[in-house]
């Protein structure tokens, strides 16, 4: 008798569970016959900061750029378009920028944007009040001025052809003075979406900014960024319609190809295998060239990215358009004999032993290392793989520069200058290769003084050539980022940097 | 020999030994010969299904999976042996002293063991590996430390039981040193449950190594480990399922073999079974 009762209980509980499940399943899927303009986007990880001036991780900007705008906004082709500033004028000497501020811009809290807010923003970034700059991008700024309610003036110490690129939300998002000290907990900007709620480890919710200055935009009522680091779970969530958009690793593309819309995006990153130029034997150009001749880019692209990558020959991706120097990807076509010769000339006829240290946060790096080890074994170089945790990689390799070889991808930027400036010998914070070349330094210094775009392009291309000639790194590829989205989603834009722009996204079904 | 033959009907013993012996043969063979070089890549030939050239197919770099499975037995046996050695030596020493001496020694030792046991094994291993760095030796040491408490408990109960027996009493009376009593006289008498515990922890260690390598903390690339292969194959689960089968089946059989063997040993050693 007692046993029967247990069974009855079990069945009753299961029925309840089924009933609850059935109820919750119906909720939300039908809203007045029309698809609700609500999107859920999977992101690998939490943002580091919500305050756009404090955030450094590219993963943060992927999300928060939807909330903020700078004086200018980066376009999908890497050019700039006016945002908070409607137009600008540059003085003859290239030092004074005069911006005409757009009239009908409102912050998410309902207050109109004023030049005081812009002044506040730049003062905060430059540390004008407390002497602690939040950003080094504005060290070249001599002064800022707000002569009237619609005009903002920035005066530079030296001409800088790249200066406008530091006026996007990536580097100088305009934030209201009234929200001082509160920006990280309750971010306020002028972008197409406003902050609703951030639940650490779970999601970031944004809602439509009804008072956005571009009245047509945005289409979506709500955007939720869901944090999920595991690809397997993310794909399952996509199939269960728990998320509408997610990145897909190339090797899993086959699982979602048929049922979802796939978009491919050139990432504009530089995937490199690089060396510590100050350590023997990597201080010898011939050794670096030998390694370049030995590494098989196509094997890496095939094995690690299932073919979804564009081979590169210098530190720039074809995604950069006019600035990109084509043809460099073929300079070091695989040639084992040549590599052995160069190695012998350099005094290592029998090769040598070294270590490649890679981060564990993405298998990509250790997989690349495995191919490199095999390739270099063919020319007698014996490489040991050391896998370290991401934090240790940053501390010891990126900042500490205590390494022989490593593999990493350098994140893309909208500006050609910022893509290449890692290699400037005086850029101590980013030049972790310890690359040093006088001509390169000079070219990069000259380009800032050059106003003519065609000449700038010429100089940027020369800079890329130098990196190839000097074999500064082994340039492997720009790997594509693949997105899978539910059918009926339109308006996804791909940028030459990490940004999930939701402003023009909409559901059509 | 006669005693062994009399257990020929013990299905656990026969099957368990058969499985383990075949892995042992595979391991010894892998020192001298594998069908292909385990690290040589042939990307053009990647993710091919099982064939007469590649019995278990090829991985994402076009390496032969069967050769890597063979080499992986070395890793599995190495980790298992080192782990069990550490676990048994320290476990017996600590448990034996706690049980034989008793009193505060017992209290202190066993409370430490309790504290160790309170941690979930894999978390403790993760912590130790995080501190001392990944790698096959560190992994084995971490797993060995985790194996200590359970063996110590078994040893302790055996020693407590036996220290009251007449043979111990008489040894004491003729003035045998305590250490000699413990390890010359008591240990052989309490060894059978320890042997069972050791063979169980051998299987557990292999599984844990697979788990740690699966998390990227155990054996480092390009050295093959079954756990790491399982992890790598996960990315190709839907497109190339056979890649997963080989390491998955190897781990399953190896652990199964050890469990069957330990079951058999327990049956044979159990005086009530006769």
Can you tell me about this structure?
The complex is a heterodimer of chains A (509) and B (274). Chain A has 509 residues and is an alpha+beta fold. Chain A folds into 3 domains: 34-67 and 191-260 and 486-509, D-Maltodextrin-Binding Protein, domain 2 (3-Layer(aba) Sandwich), CATH 3.40.190.10; 68-178, Alpha-Beta Complex (Dipeptide-binding Protein, domain 1); 270-480, Dipeptide-binding Protein, Domain 3 (Dipeptide-binding Protein, domain 3), CATH 3.10.105. Chain A is built from 14 helices and 20 strands. In chain A, strands 11, 12, 13, 14, 15, 16, 17 and 18 form an 8-stranded mixed beta sheet that branches. In chain A, strands 1-10-9-8 form a 4-stranded mixed beta sheet, with no helix packed on it. Chain A has a 4-stranded antiparallel beta sheet with strand order 4-5-7-6, with helices on one face. In chain A, helix 10 (363-377) links the parallel strand 15 (353-359) and strand 16 (382-388). In chain A, helix 7 packs antiparallel against helix 9 (336-345). Chain A is globular, with a radius of gyration of 26 Å. Chain A starts with a helix and ends with a strand. In chain A, 43% of the residues are buried. Residues 22-33 of chain A have low confidence and may be disordered. With 274 residues, chain B is an all-alpha fold. Chain B has one domain (56-273): MetI-like (MetI-like fold, Orthogonal Bundle). Chain B is built from 10 helices and no strands. The longest helix of chain B has 37 residues, at 65-101. In chain B, 45% of the residues are buried. The model of chain B has no long low-confidence stretch (mean pLDDT 86). The A-B interface holds A 231-232, 249, 251-252, 254-255, 296, 298-299, 302-304, 360, 363, 366-367, 369-371, 373-374, 385-387, 389 and B 39-41, 43-44, 46, 60-62, 130, 134, 216, 220-222, 232, 234-236, 238-239. Chain B: Keywords: Cell membrane, Membrane, Transmembrane, Transmembrane helix, Transport. Chain B: One of its GO terms (cellular component) is plasma membrane. Chain B: This is ABC transporter permease. Chain B: Pfam families: BPD_transp_1. Chain B: Belongs to the binding-protein-dependent transport system permease family.
